[in-house]
Amino acid sequence: QMMKFAWDNYKQYALGKNELRPLTRNGHIGNMFGGLRGATVIDALDTLYIMELEEEFQEAKQWVEKSFDLNVNGEASLFEVNIRYIGGLLATYYLTGEEVFRSKALELGEKLLPAFNTPTGIPRGVINLGSGMSWSWGWASAGSSILAEFGTLHLEFLHLSELSGNPVFAEKATYPVSLSPPQVMNIRRVLNRVEKPQGLYPNFLSPVTGSWVQHHVSIGGLGDSFYEYLIKSWLMSDKKDSEAKKMYDDALEAIEKHLVKKSAGGLTYIAEWRGGILDHKMGHLACFSGGMIALGAEHGPEQRRQRHRQLAAEITSTCHESYARSDTRLGPEAFRFDAGSEATATRLSERYYILRPEVVESYMYLWRLTHEPKYRNWGWEVVQALEKHCRVDSGFSGIRDVYTTTPTHDNMQQSFFLAETLKYLYLLFCEDDVLSLEDWVFNTEAHPLPINHTDSKA
Ligand code: DMJ
Predict the structure, then answer these.
(1) What is the pLDDT of residue 183?
(2) Which residue ranges make up each domain of the chain?
(3) The pTM is what?
């Protein structure tokens, strides 16, 4: 019902724009998608399909068939286009088998290739989808590429490569780095070569020299989905990609050793690291890590399994506390563990909630892996809070301050609310065989991609 409400309002007021502005009842284009439109349509497709909202799925599909134009010219984020558009199209293709989604994914994938044309093969963050020119984000230090951006391509690109299976398509990729797996693996080669301070991965890397540009480490924004894609690459390969598993294990070991802390009040959290100095803060984005660590904990020696299961549960519980300690029962964009604060935002600029999914994402994984009822209870608390504070007359909106029961709304219904937040909430209350974790991995935008089971290929 929440999904239908979010979709119906987007359709009525913003179809063809990227996202709905639910207060002003119009659409928002944004500046991340390089002239591409319909981010909400593409992000919502698989959720509508899974929820069996058939009429709504057909509306979305028709828009893709008739109006989704890839001949655009504008600055796109390689990362955002990959996780939302390519991920959404691939997942919908795998769920439905409908050719239109496959061909659009491949066509769009090809347009992203020039971003890899750098001395190291590490792609730049921004690409003009028309001209193929690429460059680094103006805000990223010294022309660097971002770990969470170039480290979050692997799952989708392996599927593009597998699905293309077409020599003509491969020949078209006449760039130094093509779409085939070995070249995506090149990113790993660079990362394996470069020295890591205390085994940690900083967030900024030069695509020219292949060296770190700044020593900021975070499992939240700028770093997050790099770690997620290591463990999921291994799972998606039916546990064959041992390089990815080793990189994940080593990275997590360094994180456990240097970043995992316990607050005075007994809450476990993962701090950020700036050139050796800890910042005792967790971003909302970092809350995905409870689910990731739980997923990774299912594999490995018994002692580590137990330790990682416990760590995953503790992080998820801390993230729940960040929700429970607010007046709206929704969590802030970042919360701190210093100057007497415990899982609460201390800065005005960090008090907002933009319909983000990471906390319910962890509830979903923890529920599926432990079946402890508290995770469903916590998920239900989120449903109630969203209904109470984020539902407005014409859609769902983010709020500017989670610490007041009369928050003002930000007038944005983010596309990831339909792709992720509502999908994870739905899966939390479904049977485990709906998109079973045995058969699917979710990309970082919650688009399910099939695991390459060796036996199913035989
Ligand atoms: C989503 O687009 C993805 O989950 C991404 O990895 C991080 N940020 C948003 C949601 O918060």
Answers:
(1) 61
(2) 1-449
(3) 0.96
